[in-house]
Design goal:
Elements lengths: L6 E7 L7 E5 L4 E5 L8 H15 L7 E6 L1 H5 L5 E4 L2 E4 L3 E7 L14 H4 L7 H11 L7 E5 L8 E5 L39 H6 L3 H7 L12 H13 L4 H9 L26
Antiparallel strand pairs: 1-2, 2-3, 3-7, 4-7, 5-6, 8-9
Bound molecules: adenosine-5'-diphosphate and magnesium ion.
Length: 281
């Protein structure tokens, strides 16, 4: 995404707790835009940028994100560009906001949910297991969210992963853990999991990551998205680095949970779940 894009037209309000809006930008593309004064937390914007870079690096299908500049003029002249706070509302922030490239052209249908029969036939269903690596690593405190698109009736739906605002525990930048955190609500997306190989290559890549690589993902995030608190951002990245060897355990906890999400797991439960070598002892 071009760093210099600015919004030229408001299209519509989107669903969801962050009260994002779809905007047309100066590069002719459409962006789902999250604002600094969203009701969740300003850090949600920083989280989206860092987490998207991490997810891209792991090879997951995620929309590119970047900075979209919003003028005072556009906000002042667009009555719908407001954030609701209880009964009242305030204008959306102007300045640098977070834009997520709209995955289709503005006229193509994008689905937030698919019925189970259609979900089971999603062309890249195996990406959900790899997304679990990402969500467990980043301590996504929300459920995993995906959107589904297809080019024509002959092709299957494809999933794209969105909404990483609650990674790193939203505004807290802590890493709480729970077996159902960051998982997709319908376990049928994990039916193809046969063992640890189903999480590759994302799992090995995460476990062998370099702290400098992670620090690079935090570069260039507008400082107003984290209150200029570089020290906290640095600490969060270091904590993320240290967690790389927790991912298997966290997936293991989900595996042993009451939900039994991987009924087709072939590996004998008595076998060690960790590889015999540890790249980062
Ligand atoms: N890149 C995108 N392309 C198409 N639709 C998107 C994109 N990002 C978000 N959406 C749509 O916008 C809605 C809100 O985005 P989301 O990231 O889930 O924000 P929230 O934190 O408010 O839930 C989603 O439910 C989805 O329908
Ligand atoms: Mg959402």
């Amino acid at each position: 995404m071009n760093a210099d894009v600015y919004a030229v037209q408001h299209i519509r309000r989107m669903r969801g707790g962050s009260q994002s809006h779809l905007l047309r930008a100066s590069d002719g593309n459409y962006y789902v835009t999250k604002f600094q004064n969203n009701p969740q937390h300003v850090r949600v914007l920083a989280n989206e940028m860092l987490a998207t870079r991490l997810a891209q690096w792991l090879g997951l299908p995620v929309p590119p994100v970047g900075v979209i500049e919003i003028s005072d003029w556009l906000v002042a002249n667009t009555p719908e560009m407001r954030i609701k706070v209880g009964e009242a509302s305030v204008p959306c922030s102007s300045g640098r906001q977070l834009g997520s490239l709209y995955v289709a052209d503005a006229r193509t249908a994008v689905y937030d949910y698919l019925p189970e029969k259609a979900l089971q036939k999603v062309a890249n269903l195996e990406d959900f297991a790899r997304a679990l690596v990402f969500d467990k690593w980043a301590a996504n405190c929300d459920g995993r969210q995906a959107i589904f698109t297809r080019k024509n009736d002959r092709e299957g739906y494809r999933a794209t992963f969105i909404d990483h605002g609650y990674c790193f525990d939203a505004g807290e930048w802590l890493f709480p853990e729970g077996p159902f955190q960051g998982v997709y609500p319908n376990s049928c997306v994990y039916a193809g999991v046969r063992g640890w190989d189903s999480f590759e290559p994302a799992l090995s890549k995460a476990e062998c990551c370099d702290v400098a690589e992670l620090a690079r993902f935090a570069q260039g995030i507008p400082e107003e998205w984290y209150g200029g608190d570089s020290e906290s951002l640095e600490k969060m990245v270091e904590a993320l680095f240290r967690r790389r060897n927790r991912i298997r355990d966290l997936i293991g906890e989900f595996r042993c949970s009451t939900r039994n999400p991987f009924p087709n797991w072939k590996q004998h439960p008595a076998l060690p779940s960790r590889p015999s070598f540890d790249p980062h002892p």
